[in-house]
Write a structure and sequence with these properties.
Blueprint (H helix, E strand, L loop, with lengths): L1 H11 L2 H23 L3 E2 L5 E2 L9 E2 L2 E4 L2 E5 L4 H7 L7 E9 L1 E2 L12 E10 L3 H22 L1 H7 L12 E3 H8 L3 H8 L4 E4 L19 E6 L4 E8 L4 H10 L8 H8 L6 E7 H9 L21
Parallel strand pairs: 1-6, 9-10
Antiparallel strand pairs: 2-5, 3-7, 4-5, 6-8, 8-13, 10-11, 11-12, 12-13
Length: 310
Amino acid sequence: MMEGIGKIRDALGSERLAAALRIQGSALRSVGEFMHKEGFVQLMPVMISPITDPLCHSVYDARVEYAGQELSITKSMILHKQVAVSSPHLPKIYIVSPNVRLEREHLRGSGRHLVEFTQVDMEMRDAGKEEFMGLMERLLCKVIHDVRRERAEELAFLGRRIEAPSTPFPRFDSKKARAEYGEAFEASLSQSLSTPFWLLDHAREFYDREDPERRGCYHNYDLVYPEGFGEALSGGERDWEYETLKRKLAERGQKEESFGTYMEMAKAGHLVPSAGGGFGVERLVRYLSGIRSIAEVSPFAKLPGERFVL
């Protein structure tokens, strides 16, 4: 018990953490201003639901039983976002959304994984990847500009020099990058570049839009931070037609009934074309502050495989 108390007191007593949290406050204010100006409506987060993001990597399930039903704790609000933008009154939405992903123990030392984190999640009806990627480039440049202006003292204390990048950001095809750099292509590119960049065309979740003329090619994207900080955002255009979603679930060995009302809406023709993505707040703060360990930018950080004390 005393060891746990000491750990929490050490974290809360860190000047580096305090500087990072002040940077976080400026970054989130900047994000909110940007979204409002761009016409996005803010939704409140969904924390438990019969459905959640299946993810394209293995995690331990976080589920609870309530009132005779099994509910998942939110891994991300992707399915809810797609349903929300089907409303004619909500063409652009965003959520500052808590996520719980019980990551496998081997990720404990990655420096960028938490089992609970906050994501800024957004979705745009009738949008394509070019529109969304341009939006994100403008957003990141604004956040960096605002943080540099408001938090010069904190950045100086942390020894961090950061410049707003030039746009458009560089782009890399993930298949070509894998062939050139191997399976660790994202990390290799992140280490070697000094500007944020895009990785395109991943084979990923069933809702990522597949090119109807090129099976196995996807209209999705990851935004990656430079200097070895790794993935910032994951997103893509969405498939919305029932038969396509049904086929892709079957190809991935996933059950249609696991996605309940979402698939029922697709079958009834109520889903619409959209594009979106989400970025982790703690990972953004890690990049802005130059702090390598994500545990140092969160006062109550929970790392994969760790015994939690509070």
